[in-house]
Amino acid sequence: MISASTKRSALAVILLLAAAMPAYAHVGIATTSSFAAGFAHPLSGLDHMAAMIAVGVWAALKGGKAIWAWPLAFVGVMLAGGALGMLHVPMPFVEPGILASVVTLGLLVALAIDLPVSAGIAITGLFALFHGHAHGTEVPENAGGFEYMAGFAMATALLHGAGIAAGLGLGLRFRSLARAAGAACAAVGVGLAFGVL
Questions:
Q1: Is the whole model's pTM more than 0.85, yes or no?
Q2: Helical (H) or strand (E) element with 69
Q3: How many separate domains does the chain show?
Q4: Looking at CB atoms within 10 Å, which of 57, 67, 184, 193 has the fewest?
Protein backbone atom coordinates (compact mmCIF):
# COMPACT_ATOMS: atom_id res chain seq x y z
CA MET A 1 0.00 0.00 0.00
CA ILE A 2 1.34 3.42 -0.94
CA SER A 3 1.41 5.90 1.94
CA ALA A 4 -0.61 9.10 1.79
CA SER A 5 2.53 11.25 1.94
CA THR A 6 4.06 9.35 -1.00
CA LYS A 7 0.87 9.86 -3.02
CA ARG A 8 0.87 13.60 -2.23
CA SER A 9 4.56 13.93 -3.10
CA ALA A 10 4.13 12.13 -6.42
CA LEU A 11 1.14 14.28 -7.27
CA ALA A 12 3.05 17.48 -6.44
CA VAL A 13 6.06 16.48 -8.57
CA ILE A 14 3.95 15.58 -11.58
CA LEU A 15 1.89 18.77 -11.30
CA LEU A 16 5.08 20.83 -11.22
CA LEU A 17 6.41 19.01 -14.27
CA ALA A 18 3.16 19.49 -16.14
CA ALA A 19 3.02 23.16 -15.24
CA ALA A 20 6.59 23.76 -16.35
CA MET A 21 5.96 23.55 -20.08
CA PRO A 22 2.98 24.58 -22.19
CA ALA A 23 1.38 22.27 -24.72
CA TYR A 24 0.15 24.92 -27.18
CA ALA A 25 -2.31 22.29 -28.34
CA HIS A 26 -5.37 24.44 -28.72
CA VAL A 27 -5.29 27.95 -30.02
CA GLY A 28 -5.97 28.34 -33.71
CA ILE A 29 -6.74 24.72 -34.52
CA ALA A 30 -9.56 23.91 -36.97
CA THR A 31 -12.89 25.56 -37.61
CA THR A 32 -14.72 26.70 -34.50
CA SER A 33 -17.98 28.17 -35.68
CA SER A 34 -20.36 25.21 -35.87
CA PHE A 35 -21.94 22.61 -33.62
CA ALA A 36 -20.26 19.82 -35.60
CA ALA A 37 -16.82 21.40 -35.19
CA GLY A 38 -17.39 21.82 -31.47
CA PHE A 39 -18.63 18.26 -31.13
CA ALA A 40 -15.66 16.87 -33.06
CA HIS A 41 -12.98 18.82 -31.20
CA PRO A 42 -12.93 16.85 -27.91
CA LEU A 43 -12.84 13.65 -29.92
CA SER A 44 -9.77 14.76 -31.88
CA GLY A 45 -7.34 15.44 -29.04
CA LEU A 46 -5.75 12.93 -26.71
CA ASP A 47 -5.67 15.47 -23.87
CA HIS A 48 -9.41 16.12 -24.12
CA MET A 49 -10.42 12.50 -24.35
CA ALA A 50 -8.16 11.37 -21.51
CA ALA A 51 -9.24 14.13 -19.11
CA MET A 52 -12.96 13.88 -19.88
CA ILE A 53 -13.07 10.10 -19.54
CA ALA A 54 -10.99 10.30 -16.34
CA VAL A 55 -13.59 12.63 -14.77
CA GLY A 56 -16.24 10.01 -15.49
CA VAL A 57 -14.19 7.08 -14.20
CA TRP A 58 -13.24 8.96 -11.02
CA ALA A 59 -16.88 9.93 -10.45
CA ALA A 60 -17.98 6.32 -10.91
CA LEU A 61 -15.35 5.03 -8.51
CA LYS A 62 -16.55 7.57 -5.92
CA GLY A 63 -20.20 6.75 -6.54
CA GLY A 64 -23.25 8.47 -5.12
CA LYS A 65 -23.73 12.15 -5.93
CA ALA A 66 -20.30 12.37 -7.55
CA ILE A 67 -21.57 10.39 -10.54
CA TRP A 68 -23.64 13.34 -11.69
CA ALA A 69 -22.12 16.25 -9.74
CA TRP A 70 -18.52 16.05 -11.00
CA PRO A 71 -19.35 15.77 -14.73
CA LEU A 72 -22.04 18.44 -14.41
CA ALA A 73 -19.60 20.78 -12.66
CA PHE A 74 -17.04 20.17 -15.39
CA VAL A 75 -19.43 20.93 -18.25
CA GLY A 76 -20.93 23.98 -16.52
CA VAL A 77 -17.64 25.60 -15.59
CA MET A 78 -16.16 24.69 -18.98
CA LEU A 79 -18.93 26.70 -20.64
CA ALA A 80 -18.22 29.64 -18.32
CA GLY A 81 -14.53 29.41 -19.21
CA GLY A 82 -15.45 29.30 -22.88
CA ALA A 83 -17.45 32.51 -22.49
CA LEU A 84 -14.44 34.17 -20.80
CA GLY A 85 -12.23 33.04 -23.68
CA MET A 86 -14.66 34.38 -26.28
CA LEU A 87 -14.69 37.71 -24.45
CA HIS A 88 -10.87 37.71 -24.50
CA VAL A 89 -10.64 37.85 -20.71
CA PRO A 90 -7.02 36.89 -20.03
CA MET A 91 -6.34 33.86 -17.89
CA PRO A 92 -2.87 32.67 -16.87
CA PHE A 93 -1.53 29.12 -17.15
CA VAL A 94 -4.26 27.79 -19.47
CA GLU A 95 -2.12 25.27 -21.37
CA PRO A 96 -0.19 24.10 -18.28
CA GLY A 97 -3.54 23.84 -16.50
CA ILE A 98 -4.89 21.59 -19.24
CA LEU A 99 -1.81 19.36 -19.05
CA ALA A 100 -2.06 19.31 -15.26
CA SER A 101 -5.70 18.23 -15.59
CA VAL A 102 -4.76 15.16 -17.62
CA VAL A 103 -2.03 14.15 -15.18
CA THR A 104 -3.95 14.96 -12.01
CA LEU A 105 -7.23 13.37 -13.03
CA GLY A 106 -5.34 10.28 -14.12
CA LEU A 107 -3.56 10.11 -10.77
CA LEU A 108 -6.81 10.61 -8.85
CA VAL A 109 -8.15 7.51 -10.60
CA ALA A 110 -4.89 5.52 -10.46
CA LEU A 111 -4.40 6.14 -6.76
CA ALA A 112 -8.13 5.77 -6.02
CA ILE A 113 -8.17 9.08 -4.17
CA ASP A 114 -11.43 9.32 -2.25
CA LEU A 115 -12.32 12.98 -1.72
CA PRO A 116 -15.54 14.62 -0.57
CA VAL A 117 -17.94 15.43 -3.39
CA SER A 118 -17.39 19.17 -2.84
CA ALA A 119 -13.62 18.77 -3.26
CA GLY A 120 -14.17 16.84 -6.48
CA ILE A 121 -16.43 19.61 -7.75
CA ALA A 122 -13.73 22.18 -7.00
CA ILE A 123 -11.02 20.13 -8.74
CA THR A 124 -13.05 19.30 -11.83
CA GLY A 125 -14.35 22.87 -11.98
CA LEU A 126 -10.85 24.36 -11.88
CA PHE A 127 -9.65 22.15 -14.70
CA ALA A 128 -12.83 22.77 -16.69
CA LEU A 129 -12.15 26.50 -16.56
CA PHE A 130 -8.82 25.97 -18.34
CA HIS A 131 -10.33 23.65 -20.97
CA GLY A 132 -13.23 26.01 -21.64
CA HIS A 133 -11.07 29.13 -21.83
CA ALA A 134 -8.73 27.52 -24.35
CA HIS A 135 -11.59 26.70 -26.65
CA GLY A 136 -13.38 29.99 -26.20
CA THR A 137 -10.28 31.84 -27.40
CA GLU A 138 -10.33 29.75 -30.60
CA VAL A 139 -13.67 31.11 -31.76
CA PRO A 140 -13.13 33.52 -34.69
CA GLU A 141 -14.10 37.16 -34.28
CA ASN A 142 -16.76 36.88 -36.99
CA ALA A 143 -18.53 33.89 -35.37
CA GLY A 144 -20.72 33.83 -32.29
CA GLY A 145 -19.27 30.56 -31.10
CA PHE A 146 -22.35 29.43 -29.20
CA GLU A 147 -23.02 26.52 -31.56
CA TYR A 148 -19.39 25.45 -31.22
CA MET A 149 -19.57 25.57 -27.42
CA ALA A 150 -22.85 23.61 -27.43
CA GLY A 151 -21.18 20.92 -29.54
CA PHE A 152 -18.14 20.88 -27.29
CA ALA A 153 -20.34 20.58 -24.20
CA MET A 154 -22.31 17.70 -25.71
CA ALA A 155 -19.19 15.75 -26.70
CA THR A 156 -17.66 16.40 -23.28
CA ALA A 157 -20.78 15.10 -21.54
CA LEU A 158 -20.72 11.98 -23.72
CA LEU A 159 -17.05 11.37 -22.88
CA HIS A 160 -17.89 11.77 -19.18
CA GLY A 161 -20.68 9.24 -19.71
CA ALA A 162 -18.27 6.80 -21.33
CA GLY A 163 -15.96 7.19 -18.36
CA ILE A 164 -18.81 6.63 -15.92
CA ALA A 165 -19.89 3.50 -17.78
CA ALA A 166 -16.32 2.19 -17.82
CA GLY A 167 -15.82 3.06 -14.16
CA LEU A 168 -19.01 1.35 -13.10
CA GLY A 169 -18.27 -1.66 -15.28
CA LEU A 170 -14.66 -2.03 -14.20
CA GLY A 171 -14.83 -0.54 -10.74
CA LEU A 172 -17.31 -3.00 -9.36
CA ARG A 173 -15.42 -6.14 -10.40
CA PHE A 174 -12.06 -5.06 -11.79
CA ARG A 175 -11.04 -2.01 -9.78
CA SER A 176 -7.37 -2.58 -10.67
CA LEU A 177 -8.19 -2.14 -14.38
CA ALA A 178 -9.91 1.17 -13.68
CA ARG A 179 -6.85 2.28 -11.71
CA ALA A 180 -4.56 1.15 -14.55
CA ALA A 181 -6.62 3.31 -16.93
CA GLY A 182 -6.01 6.24 -14.59
CA ALA A 183 -2.27 5.56 -14.67
CA ALA A 184 -2.42 5.49 -18.48
CA CYS A 185 -4.20 8.87 -18.43
CA ALA A 186 -1.49 10.35 -16.20
CA ALA A 187 1.17 8.92 -18.52
CA VAL A 188 -0.55 10.56 -21.48
CA GLY A 189 -0.39 13.90 -19.66
CA VAL A 190 3.31 13.50 -18.93
CA GLY A 191 3.94 12.45 -22.54
CA LEU A 192 2.13 15.54 -23.80
CA ALA A 193 4.05 17.76 -21.40
CA PHE A 194 7.37 16.49 -22.72
CA GLY A 195 6.27 16.48 -26.36
CA VAL A 196 6.47 12.70 -26.67
CA LEU A 197 2.81 12.38 -27.68
A1: no
A2: helix 66-86
A3: 1
A4: 184
